[in-house]
Amino acid sequence: MSDHLGLEVKKVSKSYGTAKVLNEVSFEVRPGEVVALLGENGAGKSTISSIIAGSVNHDSGTMTWKGQDYNPSSPGNAIQKGIGLIHQETRLLKELSVAENVFVGRMITKNGIVDFNKMNSLASEQLKRLGLEISPKQLVKNLKMSAQQQIEIAKALTLNSELLILDEPTSSLGESETNFLFDKIRQLKKEGVSFIYISHRLEEIEQIADKIIVLRDGNLVSSYDNANIAINKIVHDMVGRDVDRIFPTIENESTTETLRVENLNSIDGSFENINFSVNKGEIFGIAGLVGAGRTELVRAICGADMITSGKIFVDNNEINISSPQDAIKNGIVMVPEDRKSLGLLLEQSNSQNISIANFDVFLKSGWVSPEKIKNFSKKGIELMGVKGSVDQNANELSGGNQQKLLISKWISRKPKVLIFDEPTRGIDVGARHSIYQVMKQLSESGISIIVVSSDLEEVVGLSHRMLILSRGVQKNILTNSDNISRVEIMKQATN
Question: Is residue 368 part of a domain?
Fold first, then answer.
């Protein structure tokens, strides 16, 4: 294989203690090629990506890059050689500008002074290459998640990367943003840039990949020279069994209203005059493209963002929400889109993650008892089926179990309304099925659920009714029993 100038991974293995996470994995990535790397959480995708990107050392096996032996000593060394990894969770410095983030660690100077004009110009050039019309002077914290992901790509392109590893690049993108990204990948392919593409959205793979490789339990279990492979076949390869993505049937006949919002208006114009209600045990979906105001709306309902006007009612009583604490006291809780930075304390134990939001629930006397904390947390973990002990740190869990831990943290409060923003972001197909079953149980227990998702199939599959947003404007509320099609939803969401 050394006769071509791409990447060859040959019999690469890696163990942590007695646990073998990669077992003689071999594959190739040729110039201008997109190779989809698929597998459940824990299959070894992140490990092999980290080895290629220089942040993890392999135990055995070899790699070649552009016909030469390749064994990067660090991510910086890999980047110098033209290989970059773009993580699912962006690694941007939110308080700095776009240009400063693109050139962080390698600021351009002139006469010993940072040359911001040059940096802005070069950053703007790469942003335009991706079709991103934003100012390089803009602060990253003011940008949406979709734009932040594209800045990560622009950052890699300024490093003249020839192989980009994309880890869940569309997890925060809607359909139109995903198609836009795919157009840019196709454009870069023509320029000779190659990609390792990691995604749990299997329906995307046929659109963008040239080849598919599937890992399971650290082993390469299948390899396909084209992407025209049935999703059921890929899923079977990933999990070793058939897993149907049919959403659970969730009956709900309740007419008892739990939540109602009237004429809700955001402080920054993200949405205006929003009106809807959610009944007891109902799953209410919010659909729309990225930028439609979906996340901003649910953040306002749970007190994370301010509103200029409007009313919120719980059990037909008007409530005033000026902070998340106000929402929590009134029974409204939220599982946020970015569970790692907004939902969990990754360096803390599972017990601490559950108990920190519930001291007022189980410590009536005011005294903190380690035994009470442990017992309370153990019940929460068992309730959601989290595969982990109370003493284990949250960062040691898989994505699916982290999501279950976050749900158990809030379910332990017995809320009236549970809001999910991107409930299965970055979660594999097997764990998704588990999360859907959890949502079914919560709905049937009487908890009202609001679901926001960029995955339109997910919103349609789970919701009893759904609100369609377009550029912050409420278009319609559709009832799922009317067999509303994805086409009809998209038509209204883009109107």
Answer: yes
